C-alpha cells in the first residue's frame, strides 16, 4: 500500500520532480517512520511485497526498488525489468542511478540494463560505480532509521564519482558517519576538476572532521582547500 501511494504521488508530480530516485528514497524513509504520503512500512512479521519486488524480504527495500523502477518501466522491456529485479537491491540502486545520470547518453535503456545486470552477476560493478563504493555505502550508516535517507543519498553520491574511492578513503568515511560523509562527498562533487586526488581529499576532510574542526553552520568540519590536493 505504501509503495502504491508513493508511486501515485510521483505520477502527480510528473514534470516537477527532477530527481525521482531522491524523491522515492525520501518518501519511503518517511513511510518507514510512519510519516508522509506512504503511511507506515512495517519491518516485522510477514509482509506483502510491492509489485515487481518479490525478491526483497525487507518491505522497505521492496518499496524503494519499486519506486526507483517505476519511472523506467515504460522504457525498459520486460526481460530487462525481470533481470534487474532479480539482481538485488544494490544493483537496482546503482543501475537506476546510472540511467538517471546518463539519460541523454543512453540510447537503448533495455540493453544497458541487461548488460549492467550481467556484469553485476559476474562480479563486475555497474558502469560508473565500484564494488567497494557500493559496499561502503551500505555499511557506512550504523545509526538508526532516521539516517536511512542520508545513507541512500550518500550511496547515490558515491555512485556518481567518475572513479570509485579506494578502501582507505571509504574506511575514513565510515568513521565519520553518514551525515558528515555526505557533506564531504557533496563538496567533492562541487570542487570538480579542482581536486586531482579525490582519495586524499576525502581522507583529509575526514581527518578534520574527527578532530572536531567545525566550519560553517553545517558543522561538518573544515574541508581542505582543493588547491592543496593536487597530488599525483
Give the end-to-end Cα distance, rounded to a whole number of Å.
Answer: 52 Å
The number of helices is 11
> What class would the helix/strand composition place it in?
mainly alpha
Radius of gyration: 18 Å
> How much strand content do the residues show?
under 5%
On the 0-100 scale, what is the average pLDDT?
68
Helix content: 40-55%
What does the main sheet amount to?
none
Shape: globular
Give the total of beta strands.
0
The count of domains is: 2
Q: Residue ranges: pLDDT <50 for 5 or more in a row? A: 37-57, 126-145, 213-232
Order of helices and strands: HHHHHHHHHHH
Task: Describe this protein's structure.
With 232 residues, the protein is mostly helical. The chain has two domains: 2-121, no CATH class; 131-229, no CATH class. The protein contains eleven helices and no strands. The longest helix is centred in the last third of the chain and has 14 residues, at 178-191. The radius of gyration is 18 Å and the shape is globular.
What's the short version?
The chain is an all-alpha fold and 232 residues long.
Kindly list the characteristics that best describe this protein.
disordered C terminus; mainly alpha; 2 domains; 232 residues; 11 helices
What order do the helices and strands come in, and which of them pair?
Blueprint: H1 2-12, H2 20-32, H3 59-69, H4 78-85, H5 89-101, H6 109-121, H7 131-139, H8 148-159, H9 167-176, H10 178-191, H11 198-210
Amino acid at each position: 500500500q505504501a509503495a502504491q501511494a508513493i508511486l501515485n504521488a510521483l505520477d502527480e508530480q510528473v514534470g516537477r520532480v527532477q530527481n525521482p530516485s531522491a524523491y522515492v528514497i525520501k518518501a519511503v524513509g518517511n513511510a518507514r517512520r510512519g510519516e508522509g504520503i506512504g503511511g507506515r512500512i512495517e519491518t516485522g512479521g510477514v509482509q506483502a511485497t510491492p509489485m515487481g519486488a518479490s525478491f526483497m524480504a525487507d518491505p522497505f527495500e521492496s518499496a524503494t526498488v519499486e519506486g526507483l523502477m517505476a519511472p523506467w518501466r515504460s522504457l525498459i522491456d520486460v526481460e530487462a525489468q525481470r533481470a534487474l529485479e532479480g539482481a538485488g537491491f544494490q544493483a537496482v540502486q546503482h543501475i537506476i542511478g546510472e540511467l538517471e545520470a546518463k539519460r541523454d547518453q543512453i540510447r537503448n535503456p533495455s540493453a544497458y540494463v541487461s548488460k549492467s545486470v550481467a556484469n553485476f552477476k559476474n562480479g563486475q560493478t555497474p558502469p560508473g560505480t565500484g564494488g567497494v563504493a557500493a559496499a561502503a555505502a551500505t555499511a557506512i550508516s550504523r545509526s538508526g532509521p532516521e539516517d536511512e535517507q542520508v545513507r541512500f543519498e550518500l550511496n547515490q553520491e558515491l555512485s556518481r564519482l567518475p572513479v570509485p574511492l579506494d578502501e582507505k578513503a571509504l574506511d575514513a568515511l565510515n568513521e565519520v558517519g553518514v551525515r558528515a560523509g555526505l557533506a564531504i562527498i557533496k563538496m567533492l562533487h562541487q570542487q570538480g576538476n579542482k581536486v586531482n586526488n579525490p582519495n586524499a581529499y576525502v581522507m583529509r576532510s575526514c581527518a578534520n572532521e574527527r578532530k572536531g574542526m567545525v566550519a560553517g553552520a553545517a558543522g561538518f568540519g573544515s574541508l581542505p582547500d582543493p588547491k592543496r590536493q593536487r597530488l599525483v
